[in-house]
Amino acid sequence: xxxxxxxxxxxxxxxxxxxxxxxxxxxxxxxxxxxxxxxxxxxxxxxxxxxxxxxxxxxxxxxxxxxxxxxxxxxxxxxxxxxxxxxxxxxxxxxxxxxxxxxxxxxxxxxxxxxxxxxxxxxxxxxxxxxxxxxxxxxxxxxxxxxxxxxxxxxxxxxxxxxxxxxxxxxxxxxxxxxxxxxxxxxxxxxxxxxxxxxxxxxxxxxxxxxxxxxxxxxxxxxxxxxxxxxxxxxxxxxxxxxxxxxxxxxxxxxxxxxxxxxx
Amino acid sequence: xxxxxxxxxxxxxxxxxxxxxxxxxxxxxxxxxxxxxxxxxxxxxxxxxxxxxxxxxxxxxxxxxxxxxxxxxxxxxxxxxxxxxxxxxxxxxxxxxxxxxxxxxxxxxxxxxxxxxxxxxxxxxxxxxxxxxxxxxxxxxxxxxxxxxxxxxxxxxxxxxxxxxxxxxxxxxxxxxxxxxxxxxxxx
Lengths: 264, 188
What we know:
heterodimer, A: 264 residues, mainly alpha, three-stranded antiparallel β-sheet, 12 helices, extended, B: 188 residues, alpha+beta, 2 domains, 9 helices, 13% strand, globular
């Protein structure tokens, strides 16, 4: 039992060590925060408890992680001895305190933009012309791909295009007219209909589409929207009564799945 | 070959120049450099990844170096504006490069966006980061860390930038206030 506990705690220590190394590699900590001697001592301490393949793999990962941190420490020392070394916290402080103009000026003083041109040259034009002239015809090139007999372009009818969602099956005005008719029929009894009941479609997308059409019905004077307390009602008009000067009131209605469930 | 952009990156690789000009291409480049001096231009040789990884020298040898023609001197703010650069963008680039350099060539994207956001606004910081990555000033490695890109290695004198930054003094309080979202100028 003690042996098992010791093995488990050893694995945990190695995993923690690997995590620390990964954080250092991801530049979250300074590589010198890891005491390499201590890290090696941990690895060595658990080396006689390695039993399974997993244990050995974990041990290997820990060693390579520590090695990578040593590499980073070495790079860090090289960097600190170079002309580019500035402490990151000092840089952050400076960047916070400097004005945009100052920083732009510093960049301009150290900036030597590349000269690059994008245009046709005589040589490239000649090359392109030769390529074009040497190029085989479309049918010759197609033959090489062994694509079988060539099918000529075909005409598609309206239904097919609608099925492919290239065109709408019904024009928008027609959809509005149909919905207006539906609204009038639904409101025959009470002369009004509950907004949420009316806009509800087969799914969420259909509900949104109906709500959008309803908003146009109201805007173009095909129906009125009445509010009574927390309820909203749609009252259809016998004849559309558009407001040429625009709607006097804009009333946004947020539609979320939660609202629809509550309105059920 | 050096001036014209072929594909995404301008300039020419050493092997391309060798093929085009022969073995003595370095001599030709030296002569070209001399001739370009009158136009305030110079030929710049960029070793692969020398600054990003802080290696003492290129491991891949001469074959992988790239040559560019760049401005020998520097631009005045007015000239930079004429090239389509705004003060905000220049400041943001300076901040991003300084931070990446101070972090030994690699930094988290989020950290950079925060630093740029303080100067150019939060939303602008996101677009600017994309612009810097796209134009080659910065590169994102496979671990999602941001490092210096090929264009920075070709165009920027980083020791000078870091020196200027280290020696700088903050201006008066009113000109150094951080920018509110969307207040910064909008031009890429």
